[in-house]
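Title: Comparing notes on inverse folding

I've been comparing how different people in this forum approach sequence design from structure. To keep things fair, I'm posting one structure and asking everyone to reply with a full sequence. Here's the target:
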């Protein structure tokens, strides 16, 4: 497996490798890892048709090479022959789609999600589906019926969640890039824990058509890769308005992402660091040190950093969970044992079928969130709590938008701590929820943010720092990340 998409494309063009070799390499690595004492458990399965698609891509490349039209072919299909990993809640036609839940065991996606379809049209090959927290509800990928995904840096630790499988697959070089989903930090958090780049785009830039809903007003497809360019290229190909998603939007400057340039004009760059995050309780000393080093790097480049006061951020966790859990309770009501998925019918009538199916099909964390969501939406509250959460969210959006009138990016850690040990927080939901302390404001404000691998703690575990920009500023934050990558190349944490 090559390290970047660019290296792989050049190797495919020259004949140094083939798409079939890339897929076989992933299959061999997957099968070997499954037999180890501590399997990574990143991929749940490699798609059976991946090899056939790879052979078809190789035939196209060989034909174009003979005809002297290789460059034209890759201009039309920039990712031809490149395999990618797919999270288990994103539809890939003809393949299993379970959201790592018993209630969807055996369900096969009848169509491609828009993001998958657009990658396929660009020549990319869906390699397989990756592990996740059940219905994307979690921060460690421990809430999965398939067991947890381990951190490839140290397999005694979590990979983060809920997109932990997609992240671990990339970090362990089992895939060049991967799709994940975000509701409150589920791409950036595992990217930080595993030492790779993870982008949460502006809400609407990537279509949600074909993505199983958790919190519809917050959900967003994200991208994971070894370099900013490995994120920028798929982003440019997947972004844009989709007929099937009324919340979708075009991305300005998407063409500039195809050949990403490092940011240059640091002297005019103004960076905001919220006091609420600097003073937050529970910030690990090593994370704080990495954050200070990142600020020093920006300062050395000529950027101006200022501490800003955003008191509304103190309410972000509460507002996020009120909104997310209320929407989750509503979205997951469709899984009732009648329309599709698992059915537990003991012949006691439809009401009991509904109760038995959901009781057996959902795991403890999903049940917890459904119960809380339904309680928030219950007649007792008449939806007032949800409305209050939305009101707080609107204020966060206004204040963050106002901040970006004077600043270019917000700089902060991704998580208060590095990755924690498997099982450490499994039975402590509140501690797990607080892992999202620095990430949820981005989802509430609907702005883009990228997790950048910025260092490690004393035990060698990665620490990520996030660059968050105003809506539709993906090009700028990716250019900043590229500048960081060029200055820090080779400083990543090695996979054990």
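Reply #1:
Here's my take.
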């Amino acid at each position: 497996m090559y390290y970047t998409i660019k290296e792989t494309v050049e190797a495919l063009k020259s004949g140094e490798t083939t798409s079939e070799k890339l897929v076989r390499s992933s299959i061999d690595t997957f099968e070997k890892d499954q037999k180890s004492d501590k399997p990574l458990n990143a991929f749940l399965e490699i798609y059976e048709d991946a090899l056939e698609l790879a052979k078809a891509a190789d035939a196209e490349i060989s034909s174009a090479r003979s005809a002297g039209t290789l460059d034209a072919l890759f201009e039309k299909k920039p990712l031809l022959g490149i395999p990618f990993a797919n999270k288990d809640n994103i539809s890939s036609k003809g393949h299993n789609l379970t959201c790592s839940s018993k209630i969807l065991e055996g369900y096969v996606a009848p169509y491609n999600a828009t993001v998958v379809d657009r990658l396929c049209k660009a020549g990319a090959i869906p390699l397989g589906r990756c592990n996740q927290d059940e219905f994307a509800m979690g921060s460690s990928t421990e809430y999965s019926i398939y067991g947890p995904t381990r951190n490839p840096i140290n397999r005694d630790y979590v990979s983060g969640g809920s997109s932990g499988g997609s992240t671990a697959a990339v970090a362990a070089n089992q895939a060049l890039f991967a799709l994940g989903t975000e509701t409150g930090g589920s791409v950036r958090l595992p990217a930080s824990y595993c030492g790779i780049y993870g982008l949460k785009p502006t809400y609407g830039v990537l279509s949600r058509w074909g993505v199983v809903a958790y919190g519809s007003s917050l959900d967003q497809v994200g991208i994971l890769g070894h370099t900013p360019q490995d994120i920028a290229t798929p982003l440019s190909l997947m972004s844009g308005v989709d007929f099937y998603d009324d919340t979708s939007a075009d991305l300005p400057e998407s063409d500039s992402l195809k050949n990403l340039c490092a940011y240059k004009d640091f002297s005019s760059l103004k960076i905001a660091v919220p006091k609420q995050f600097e003073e937050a309780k529970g910030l690990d000393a090593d994370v704080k040190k990495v954050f200070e080093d990142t600020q020093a790097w920006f300062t050395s480049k000529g950027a101006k950093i200022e501490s800003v006061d955003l008191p509304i951020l103190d309410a972000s966790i509460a507002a996020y969970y009120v909104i997310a859990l209320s929407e989750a309770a509503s979205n997951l009501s469709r899984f009732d044992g009648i329309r599709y998925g698992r059915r537990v019918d003991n012949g006691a009538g439809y009401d009991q079928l509904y109760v038995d199916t959901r009781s057996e099909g959902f795991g403890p964390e999903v049940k917890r969130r459904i119960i809380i969501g339904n309680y928030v939406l219950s007649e007792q509250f008449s939806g007032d709590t949800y409305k209050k959460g939305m009101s707080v969210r609107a204020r966060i959006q206004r204040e963050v938008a106002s901040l970006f009138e004077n600043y270019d990016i917000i700089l902060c850690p991704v998580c208060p701590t590095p990755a924690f040990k498997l099982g450490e927080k499994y039975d402590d939901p509140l501690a797990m929820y607080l892992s999202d302390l620095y990430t949820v404001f981005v989802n509430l404000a609907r702005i883009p943010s990228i997790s950048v691998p910025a260092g490690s703690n004393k035990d060698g575990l990665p620490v990520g720092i996030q660059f968050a920009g105003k809506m539709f500023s993906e090009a700028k934050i990716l250019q900043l990340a590229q500048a960081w990558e060029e200055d820090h190349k080779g400083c990543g944490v090695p996979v054990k």
